[in-house]
Design goal:
- The protein contains 11 helices and 11 strands.
- It has about 325 residues and is α/β, with parallel strands linked by helices.
- The protein folds into 2 domains: about 180 residues, 3-Layer(aba) Sandwich (Rossmann fold), CATH 3.40.50; about 110 residues, Rossmann fold (3-Layer(aba) Sandwich), CATH 3.40.50.460.
- The strands form 2 sheets. Strands 3-2-1-4-5-10-11 form a 7-stranded mixed β-sheet, with helices on both faces.
- It is elongated and about 70 Å long.
- It binds adenosine-5'-triphosphate (ATP).
Amino acid sequence: MRRIAVLTSGGDAPGMNAAIRAVVRTAIYEGMEVYGVERGYEGLIDGDFHEMDVASVGGILHRGGTVLRTARSERFMTEAGRTKALAMLETFEIDGLVVIGGDGSMHGAAELEKAGVTVMCLPGTIDNDMGYTDYTIGFDTAINTVLSAIGNIRDTSSSHERTTIIEVMGRNCGDIGLHAGVAGGAEQILIPEIPLDLNALCRKILQGINRGKKHSIIIRAEGVELSSEALGAEIAKRTGLEVKIVVLGYIQRGGSPTARDRMLASRLGYKAVELLKANSTSKAIGISGDEIVAYDLSDALEYKSELDPTLLALAEVLSI
Ligand code: ATP
């Protein structure tokens, strides 16, 4: 391997910059040339490549977002778009590509692999919805952001004796809700993987009040079927309580990455280049326990993202 490229794709996640830095610095250390591709697969199609040096990734380790910018690319979903992207990789004589992104980005990488490109995929998404890895880059920062919001909201909910629904991200995956909910001591955690039981929910709120609880914090992951507004209206109707709704939204996607995310991103970025250097075939790189692991892309895509049942049980016990 002489010349490699790196891009970020899909939704941004804190720690993507740390991963870019690790890829660039490891590659240069190993004597390779490294190109940054702007705006994910869009830049791959348009030939928006620029060479990166050691200094170009200085001062970015602590920054959220991605200095390479990111995009969702409709064009890359088409054969014609991918043919253009392949031609650009040839024009720039790129021997290997590192893709930092979520599940969709890995599907895109698998298409490139079919066409003969060696691609290393790093899991970059706050959602933690990639089954082959215990954690994705950005997840830890996102749950810490939610945790901080829960703390603030608890203060005011308690003063006003309010019930508050906090809506968190995660698409169809309940991990952000579950982890932040357990760590933040939420009274209720509603996630898409578990059917909603409105009777049990209202019972628990009322029992809490009867026991002298001053507030109720309900975490609702965005994938839960009933919207936050509908849920709030239903709780208000059934219990007579005033229900406030806080949608955390994009604040969960930004912010300086936590130590954990910086470490994960650095280790994964380093591993990607080491595998390219060893002339490995395409791999999805992740973490299992404390070990960095690498799977063939087709195998990694087969893994289904599953909730940790012990964490679910813990949430149930601790929120009585
Ligand atoms: P996040 O989890 O943050 O949403 P993601 O990587 O899953 O990140 P997507 O928008 O699903 O985000 O995918 C990013 C891009 O990957 C898409 O815009 C598209 O260009 C490409 N892509 C996704 N799925 C495929 C596919 N099946 N074939 C080819 N390219 C794909």
